[in-house]
Amino acid sequence: MQIPKDFRRVIVAASVGNVIEWYDFYIFGSLAAVLSVKFFEKTHPVAALLSTIALFTAGFLIRPFGAFLFGWLGDRVGRKYTFLITLTGMGIGTGVIGLIPTFDQIGLAAAFILFALRMIQGLCLGGEYGGAITYVAEHVSDERRGFYTGWLQTSPTLGIVVALAVVLGTRAGFGEEVFNAWAWRVPFLVSFLLVAIAIYIRLQLGETPIFQEIKAKGLRTRNPWKEAFLTANIKFVLIASIIVIGQGVVWYSGQFWALYFLQQVSKVDLFTSSYIVMAALLIATPTLIFWGWASDHIGRKPVILGGMLLAAVTYYPLYAWLGTVTQPGNINYPVAIIIIAILVNYVGMVYGPIGAFLAEYFPSRIRYTSVSVPYHIGNGWGGGLVPFITSAAFAATGSLGYALLYPILVPAVCFVLGLFLMPETRHISIWKPLEAEAKPAS
After folding, report:
1. What's the CA angle centered on 356, arms 351 and 357, to 5 degrees?
2. Contact status, residue 361 vs residue 236, Cβ threshold 8 Å
3. N or C: which end of the chain has fewer CB within 10 A?
4. 364-377 burial, b for 16+ CB within 10 Å, e for fewer?
């Protein structure tokens, strides 16, 4: 089977769509403080904020169910059409948030509508990543899969940057009073335009050559769920889930909780905290590509597990240091940006190679399902709990040590388990004749 010549266009198109889809997901978190005032009862501001973060977390917790649903569709119908559906659902779920009435206008119904839209977001995002990573992996060579999928892995980070940029731009353009009154809706409404652009770009793409061959040779699985979860493959799904849980906690602890930390612990204002995080992300995002490339040469396992170990060992001193240099009125901007860039470098280590590892670990017939479910168990349940657990622990105790227990212990445990359970996959070819793949158990 020949590797397609237009694979770079495929990577760009998949990445652009992924950036926009993650933009949709992250503006909710970026505006958590505003949404808590608009959609929940205001007399208990801490409870309202935690309720909003809980809604943010719920969007993560439902993601494995989206992976389960859309994984089946991706292995039965095709990669391209499935992630077009997920992109459309995500855009609608986000854009409509900018249209719904507030708590003051319709009472508790506002929170229920917000919850429903958040569930649509989470379900659709659950089907997005498996489609995007499978689509890219099935277009590039075995020797450079880590490098090329590393480009796709930058899309969530860039999605945060775009989200922060739109929020800051809207706030600066309208002014804080107007922004808090109604212009907070603008970043959500922008999603309609961005998703329309992404859908247009993705419509120009064809199906992956590997899925085309599966379809042409009549090798499509009849029941992806049975083949993925009720055969020996379940062992590989469980091992992958352990690895991705560690990766997910490092990702959200180093990238997303950094913003929460600046706002909640150091009490840095929205503008300043967003600028610091955005600068650090722009500096450190290339590490996702670098570590993906490195995994092509030294292996997926040492890079991913190395990131987990470094995170577990250094999170407390790094966050304690970040707290000392971000006191309101006395912020050391260069040092704060460097610290968060170091945290994002750990994200690069665990996340840069993970797409290549997952694509290589599972057979083509059930790749969409098998990649999606452990990925979203790890990132949806493992990583998605980080903002709520860390914020709630800090709110309850005021202790940085207690807040960081979850971000430190989970990667440490996954590192130890990974030493014994995680295989090295970089020498596995996904371009071998499909008939050579192990036949599914009956």
Report:
1. 80
2. yes
3. C
4. bbbbbbbbbbbbbb
Q: Where are the chain's structural domains?
A: 7-423
C-alpha span between 124 and 17 (Å, rounded): 13
Half-sphere exposure of 317 (CA within 13 A, CB side): 6
Alpha-carbon distance of 210 to 389, in angstroms, equals 41
Residue 308 and residue 418 in contact, taking contact as beta carbons nearer than 8 Å = yes
CA distance to 7, 158, 398, per residue, from 323 (Å): 44, 25, 13
pLDDT < 50: residue spans in the chain: 438-442
Query: What are the backbone angles phi and psi of residue 31, rounded to the nearest 5°?
Result: -105, 25
The Cα–Cα gap between 428 and 300 comes to 11
Nearest 5°: phi and psi at 326?
Answer: -130, 40
pLDDT at 442: 36
Residues 6 or more apart whose Cβ sits within 8 Å of residue 244: 354, 358, 374, 375, 377, 378, 379, 382
Q: Report yes or no: 305 and 370 within 8 Å, Cβ to Cβ.
A: no
- First and final CA of the chain: distance in angstroms? 28
Dist CA 128 CA 105 (whole Å) = 34
- Three-state SS at 223: coil
Task: Identify the DSSP state of 326.
Answer: E
Q: Are 330 and 306 in contact (CB under 8 A)?
A: no
- What would the CATH number be for the domain defined by 7-423? 1.20.1250.20
Q: Distance between CA 294 and CA 353 in Å, rounded?
A: 8
Give the length of the chain: 442
